[in-house]
Amino acid sequence: MLRYAGPLERLIQELQKLPSIGPKSAQRLAFHLLRGGEEEARALADAILRVKSDIRACARCFNFSDEELCGICGDARREQGTICVVEDPSDLMALERAGEYHGVYHVLQGRLSPLDGITEDDIRIAELVKRVETERPKEVILATSPTVEGDATASYIATLLEPYEVEVTVLAIGLPVGGDLDYADQVTIARALQGRTKWRR
Amino acid sequence: MLRYAGPLERLIQELQKLPSIGPKSAQRLAFHLLRGGEEEARALADAILRVKSDIRACARCFNFSDEELCGICGDARREQGTICVVEDPSDLMALERAGEYHGVYHVLQGRLSPLDGITEDDIRIAELVKRVETERPKEVILATSPTVEGDATASYIATLLEPYEVEVTVLAIGLPVGGDLDYADQVTIARALQGRTKWRR
After folding, report:
1. Alpha-carbon distance B84 to nearest alpha carbon in chain A (angstroms)
2. Chain A partners within 8 Å of B33 (Cβ)
3. ipTM score here?
């Protein structure tokens, strides 16, 4: 099969390595970069290199950071006695957007998934236990995803934290706000029923 | 709103400038690059810069090329007397994949689209007329897309080529091979009827 000129073909190949970018998308992105300004392409290439050289894991919570401690760990106004455990930095951001949480975080950088070969050694569980041991927080909120693997990860961590004097909590499971009961799945409705609370206004 | 650490936020912003990459996709791509190998990120950044520095338009047909003439224009075995006019290099590649065409091309680099402010000065129409004048081809195939804008572009070019002694043809419009008559749109069926040919096997 005929191919595009060397450098263009190579860019298309490299773009195809990215998640959910197929041959068609890769071609469209490459054409866009080729036709766009020199500045835009340079800025993107530079941003890619910068992120690799400048971003690391926060030494305390393993959130992405460009300094020793991330913005949240470095913020003295955050409640240091509450640690919210999330799988990924994107989950942390989702919680921050809600604006309801004022404690600190611990980013596991994944979840237990034996089928994918991800065990407790691949994610930051040991570091969490160590933090609980040394920081002695009042509460650890297990905010892993409400999936089989997320639940298994939470359950495993809860067991490890049993020896410590810390309250371990999980996020409420129930109907999403604005969701139609009619469209909620059976398991969510069952969990919403189990977790029902007294009417109050 | 809280943002990711500077370099990461910047990469997400740059990725979002790409076509059909939204905030969620940009975040996923950035995370992928951040977690992936140093090599992969460097290869992508390098490919982006290379494509800008090394790829130009073929001096004759305006296909993407890394040399003065593109691979097709530089190939003496191609029939020089037939020029196939396409909108984009991706259309050229689609024709090449069909393996049926052995002439040369002329890449317009777009199509007339007054609503988007794209006029005859923005695409390589004048260069095509000049080629017809100097190269004196036997045939010009107008292979613009079968859309309103593609048809208008073909029609405009056909008018410009009238003074020259050259056969101007267009691709056949009809049912796609493997397509179900039932699923074909009315306009395509009407055009297939108008263009019907004698049965032969």
Report:
1. 17
2. 18, 48, 51-52
3. 0.72
